[in-house]
Amino acid sequence: LKSNPSNNEEKEAQTQLTKSDELQRLHSQALSAYKQEDYEATISLLDEILAVCVWDAELRELRAECYIKEGEPSKAISDLKAAAKLKNDNTEAFYKISRIYYQLGDHELSLSEVRECLKLDQDHKQCFSLYKQVKKLNKQIESAEEFIREGRYEDAINKYDSVMKTEPEVPIYTTRAKERICHCLSKNQQATEAIKVCTEVLQLEPANVNALKDRAEAYLLEDLYEE
């Protein structure tokens, strides 16, 4: 304005200045809401700021934290992926994305994201620790699936038992392992055991189509046609 004063430019500058003050006020409110653990309010305020400050990586990371707390992992991943692109060497974002995928049971995508972290910093302790865990689990699941394709059902069952021991803390891996064990037992004509394991899966996931089909096959082996 000092170098080139004109009515239009002054009006534009005043508008932007007012908007800037408003965004700073919203930012203070967002941080305050976050400290009070009101994550829904924080997200709402950050939505307004990020509509204008689209390229702010730190605000996206903060909103991702709120989405995680609110149980919306897919939205958190979206913000973290943007933050990983916006900020150079953002190992923290890749680590968090990998953790979320891992908790959701998507071990392959988890492995892919944690590798991105290690490309940026091969000495990153958290990423390396997670990498070792996911790689081990991934290898066991791949090996088990290979046994199933080959019809080596006993070997596959043993391998899925190992999966449950490798990751006892994240329930989805136990459920998926049991679902595949139920399949192997049914294919291996171990009807009684198959019915037991399939039923365990269906108590957790009543609409699990694979477990329903495999239990049906096991009932057929036992001549339990009504069931």
TrEMBL record:
<dbReference type="InterPro" id="IPR051727">
    <property type="entry name" value="DnaJ_C3_Co-chaperones"/>
</dbReference>
<dbReference type="InterPro" id="IPR011990">
    <property type="entry name" value="TPR-like_helical_dom_sf"/>
</dbReference>
<feature type="region of interest" description="Disordered">
    <location>
        <begin position="1"/>
        <end position="21"/>
    </location>
</feature>
<dbReference type="GO" id="GO:0005783">
    <property type="term" value="C:endoplasmic reticulum"/>
</dbReference>
<dbReference type="InterPro" id="IPR019734">
    <property type="entry name" value="TPR_rpt"/>
</dbReference>
<dbReference type="GO" id="GO:0051787">
    <property type="term" value="F:misfolded protein binding"/>
</dbReference>
<keyword id="KW-0677">Repeat</keyword>
<feature type="repeat" description="TPR">
    <location>
        <begin position="91"/>
        <end position="124"/>
    </location>
</feature>
<dbReference type="Pfam" id="PF13181">
    <property type="entry name" value="TPR_8"/>
</dbReference>
<dbReference type="GO" id="GO:0034975">
    <property type="term" value="P:protein folding in endoplasmic reticulum"/>
</dbReference>
<keyword id="KW-1015">Disulfide bond</keyword>
<protein>
    <submittedName>
        <fullName>DNJC3 protein</fullName>
    </submittedName>
</protein>
<keyword id="KW-0802">TPR repeat</keyword>
<dbReference type="GO" id="GO:0051087">
    <property type="term" value="F:protein-folding chaperone binding"/>
</dbReference>
<dbReference type="Pfam" id="PF13432">
    <property type="entry name" value="TPR_16"/>
</dbReference>
<feature type="compositionally biased region" description="Basic and acidic residues">
    <location>
        <begin position="8"/>
        <end position="21"/>
    </location>
</feature>
